[in-house]
Every structure is written in C-alpha cells, then in structure tokens.
Write a structure and sequence with these properties.
The protein is of the alpha/beta class and about 450 residues long. Helix content is about 30%, strand content about 25%. It has 12 helices and 22 strands. The strands form 6 sheets. It has an 8-stranded mixed sheet. The chain binds adenosine-5'-diphosphate (ADP) and zinc ion. Zinc ion binds near residues 269, 274, 329 and 331.
Length: about 450
Amino acid sequence: MELLNSLYPVLPQDVNCPTHPVSAMDYMPVEQLRALQLHRLKWTVEYAFERVPLFRKRCDERGVRPEHIKTLADIKLLPFSKKIDLRDEYPMGLRGAPMDEIVRFHCSSGTTGKPICIPNTLGDVAVWQNGAMRCLAMYGIRAGDVLQVSYGYGLFTGGLGLHYGGEGMGCAVLPTGGGNTERQVMLMRDLGVNAIACTPSYFLRIMDEARRQGVDFRRDTKLRHGIFGAEPWTTEMRDTIERETGIVAHDIYGLTEIAGPGVAGDCQHRTGLHIWEDHFYPEIIDPETLEPLPDGEVGELVFTTISRTGTPMIRYRTRDLTRLHTEKCACGRTMRVMDRISARSDDMLIIHGVNVFPGQIEAGLLRVPEVAPHYQIILSSTDTLDLFEIKVEVNADAFSDSVRKMEDLRKRVFDAVKSIIGLSAKIILVEPGSLPRSEGKIKRVIDNRRK
Ligand code: ADP
Ligand code: ZN
C-alpha cells in the first residue's frame, strides 16, 4: 500500500506550479525523471507479476523475476504484450486491481472480432486526466476557456478523456459528443467556444457544415484551438485546417490500452509530441527483430504504463511507427518527444509491389480542393491481378449532377494520387459523409486480397 500511494504524488498539487500553470513534472530534471521511472517500473512489474497470470507465466518462461529489473535498460528482459493478448484474455484476464477498485471500463473495437476491454481504477482515471490536462495546458488552454468535446462519448476514450482533462483545467466543457453537426456549429457560435476536441476528419466535416451555414470561423466564432487526434493526420491536413479557419491545430495522442488521449501532445515548437513519460514509459523497437532501437531511429512504439493498476500494460506494442528525438526541445520540457504518428505498422500496404501508406493518399487528395481527404482504400484480387480502388468523398458544394464535371474531377484526383504514389488507382467519387465512420474515424483500408 505504501508503494501504491507513492505512485500518486504528482496529483493534483503539482499541476498548478506557480510559474507555469502546468505540471512541474514536465520540466523535471532528467536524472530525477529516470529515477522516478525506474522506481515506478519496478513497482509495476512486481504488481503485475503478482496479479496478472499471463504476465507471470511469460516471465516464468523466460526465467525473469521482478528483482531482475535493476535499471531502466533491464526492461528489455520483460515479455511484450499485444492487442491479441487483450482479445484472448477478453474480457478481464489482464486486470491487475481487484474489482472493488475498478471504476470504469473502456473498450476499443479495433478491426475485427471481439473488442478489447480495459478496466480502470480511480487512480488510472486520475493519471489519464493528468496527461490530458498537461496537454491542454501546453496548448495554452486555460480556466475560463469554453471547450467543446466532439469526440464520441462512451466506450471510446476520446470523449471522456478530453472531458475530464477540460474540467480538470477549469474549462467550461460542452460535451456535444460526435454527430448532429448542424447543432455543433450553432452551439460553437452561440456559446463562444474557444477550443474544440475531435478527430481531424470530423473537424473537416464541421468546416463543411460551417461553410454551408455561411459561418466564417474568424468572423463569427471565438474558436482558437483544435485538439485533434485518435487517427493519423498529415501536416498538409493541419495546414489546410489552420489556413481555412485561423485556429491552431494541436496534436494529441493516446490509446485505450495505455489510457486514452493525453499520453502525448505537441508544444508550440512542433518538433513532435512530448510523451508524459513519468506515467507512460516509451521504447522504440525493430518490429521484425523486436530489439530495442536507440533514440533517433524509427520503429514501433512500445509503452509500459508505470503508474496504472487496473490494467498494467507492460511493453505493449502499439503498432504505431515513430522515433524518439535525441535533441532537447526548445520549450524546456524534459519529457521526450516523438515524431507525429504518420502510420501504423500494419497500415503499410504493398500494392503491385510498391509500399503505400494511407497518409500519402491523403496528401494527394489535399491537392484537389473539391474533395475532402475522406477516403477508403479497397483492395481485392482476381485470379490474375490486384484491384486497387479508392473511394473519395466530394465536398458538399462541389458535388454535382453533371457527369462531365464529375468525370473531370475524377481525373484530377487520379492524377493527384498517381503523382505521389506512382500507381494508378480506380477513383470512385462518393457523396459527402457517405463513407462509414466509427467514433469519427474512417476505416481507411479494406484489404480483401487473398493472402
Ligand atoms: P483503435 O485501435 O480501435 O483505433 P483507440 O481508439 O484506442 O483504438 O486508438 C488508438 C490509436 O489511434 C493509436 O494507436 C494510433 O494508431 C491512433 N492515434 C491516436 N492518436 C493519434 C494521433 N494524434 N496521431 C496519429 N494517430 C493517432
Ligand atoms: Zn517542447
């Protein structure tokens, strides 16, 4: 219990440091941070070893015991965990804390089959809220700001994550959730919303709706900040949003297994995203050899939660590709920076022998103003060849009954995509809002090819 208590000294006192209304933890001297991480790592490993049978079994198989963790580098002795483990152990096989300490479940659907389920304790929710608050503070959002949370509420972590973060900061939170875009725009204007949190693709939908209503963001709203995450989005998309609305588009990263949004976020220098590594310890590994890679090299991001007990995750493979920076950020924060996540390792497609990432298609679509970068890649195969199709949503004001106009647009989209990936795709233009979305995220790739 003494150890458990020692996990929470950061909450909530140090969130409001007198010189900076943000957690003093962000600026913690590196040696102290490493000492804290080691302390928490040892504690978490001991905790999980005692309470999570799968973790203990895997440690036993490798002959690893908690006392073997003497330095942070010893983390490499520990077994990895993956989404499939959460599926196999569904619903609660990886739970660490007893049921009377669990206060909330979150689930993420992932791609197919059973969802994964993450039990959270009150302490876990507090750690997550701390991460979300530190992101908001870093973005310059303060008490008194009105924050519209248009991420989905419910099993998905987006809504409640930003909701708790916003309330913790003293913002007035407007919990619209996703959907009913017409009302979202009306409330944003009427309530003087300063900041909105949603997926970047949903914000594009809001921009469309505002255009339809004749609402100009600069003239008619007080919106200054967008807090966008939950899906990869390109720098080109960020530039488009900022240019068209005059807001600052911040990046927020997180995942259900580790907490939710608020694991990392970008500061004003935009060198990447600071990871709140006093709670979420990052590693980069080579996804093939599974060996740790040094800071600076691109590989798969792996997290160990070092202050969570509901579902302690050890060496969780996120499948997200990034690198950790070696140079210190000019903002003075000591928490390491990772590159923005541009792709998941399992999103890379090999089409006709060429490596293609969905972000490249998005960048191509952003060159054609009449289409929204809402798209879905569909791959299928016949006996002799792979078929490569892209469905693309046309903007409401560009959608037309004229076959000639649509054909001309289709050609331009084809050229824009081809100029980036060098491949010819069959382009299918579809109506605005018609691609299926889950929690505001579009499933980008449907691969029906024979394996
Ligand atoms: P699911 O795996 O079902 O989508 P989550 O809702 O927990 O589950 O989503 C977490 C994933 O979303 C991350 O692993 C990452 O791939 C993606 N993601 C979250 N935030 C960002 C971001 N800011 N930039 C890029 N990708 C992100
Ligand atoms: Zn910084």
